[in-house]
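Thread: Newbie trying to understand structure tokens

Hi all, I'm a second-year student working on a class project, and my supervisor (Dr. K.) asked me to get a predicted structure for one chain before our next meeting. I've only ever worked with sequences, so writing a 3D structure as a token string is new to me. If someone could post the tokens and maybe explain what I'm looking at, I'd be very grateful. Here's the chain:
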Amino acid sequence: MDHRGSTGFMNRTRYGWIAALVAVAACGGRAQSDTSDGLVVVAEAPFETGAEPADHLIDENEKHFAALRQITFGGQNAEAYWSTDDEWIMFQATPREATCDQQFSMRADGSDLSLVSTGTGRTTCGYFFPGNEKILYGSTHLGGDECPPEADMSQGYVWALYDDYDIFVADADGSNLQQITDAPGYDAEGTMSRDGEWIVFTSARDGDLEIYKMRNDGSELTRLTDSPGYDGGPFFSYDGTEIVYRASHPEGEELADYQRLLAQGLIRPSQLDIFVMDADGSNKRQLTDNGRANFGPYFFPDGERIIFSSNLGSETGREFDLWAINVDGTGLEQITYTGDFDGFPMFNSDGTKLIFASNRGNELPRETNLFIADWAIPAAGPRGTHRRGAGGAVRDLPSRDLQAPSSARAGRTGAPKAGGPHQPMRARRFSTAAGDRLGRTLPRLLGGTARRARPLPGHAETRGRGGGRMTTQ
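---
Reply by user tm_fold:
Sure, no problem. This is what the structure looks like when written as tokens:
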């Protein structure tokens, strides 16, 4: 059925995971190969993408969302970043029957899904070069094909920082892979300036977790931070003059504990705050100081505000929402209000669309999917009549009823919709500790992983950027 049909749903791409020894031939979204005995092997565990309207998942308080579309459907999907022309998205995903994050690219409507990493090890933080002919990401695959071992919880709740993480550049299809960091220890959480000239990343090469920048070929390495503690998750502003990042700078006994664990390749989650500095590392300033976990920051296109994820508004510490703040630390504003996890936000070039990861509308518990919101700033007049994108462009939009149709309010069950392309989805067991969302999302943001032995007061359970894109990751 054509995607413009009566159901209003766009066709989804179904992506099959293929074993290393199977020759792949895509057909109808299912991969198959003739073996030596003539048996046809079919790879299951479909990875679904597309673009389905999801306005019924917008909370009535989310006044900046004029419309919402869901573009992944199942498993763990996070750290999605726009190409500079806003045509493509690169993101990390662990499908329901997989065990480790890999890097994928697709168009903004969910079509043309491709695996672009090696399919081995664990990956994080993927980015397009301008022009979309090359990509950047972090990976542990040189240390082995399997997922790295999980963190040792005998010392409490900690994240693992894998020494095997390095940063790589490849052609857009994943070929011609080149390693551009080779220092001993953790190198990950890499992102790129919009002109494609500079990469900023987190490294433990000098004995602490600090932020560095380098040319896109690995040359002209410069250290940008020098405070004891964790500095990571950096992103350039749209004009390349500033960098926003998350940091934790413990003191006293907490600092001693941090340094002891770091020597073992571990880090204990603690307070994270949002910082901004000039692109040369000068003029550092702290924007938040709320005693909570604030991470995944990104600039608004005009450079005047920062959007980030935080459990600031959660009494239990288990709910993460998107927040915005001015670059001078004033004007804190809550953006999302769902009862679970929203994180890893990024605006497109003109600020009219925001991509982010969320647990809202899950088919299975604790899954994380990608959404794209039409960004709106209410102007004078009734809601839904006049909107201004984050980049300043004024546009007229149709009014929106916050109540979903009855079929949408009932929730997506995976059953085929009349006339639509959606196929039933089998319930699958998670093959890792995906059920522990904080231990899965926040540590992978740091490039690590974690398993929680017992509830941790004041911390959320969510999975998703590098360094552990927390999936600190």
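A couple of things are worth pointing out once you decode it. Confidence is low (pLDDT under 50) at residues 1-46, 379-388, 392-473. The two ends are 38 Å apart (CA to CA). Feel free to ask follow-ups in this thread.
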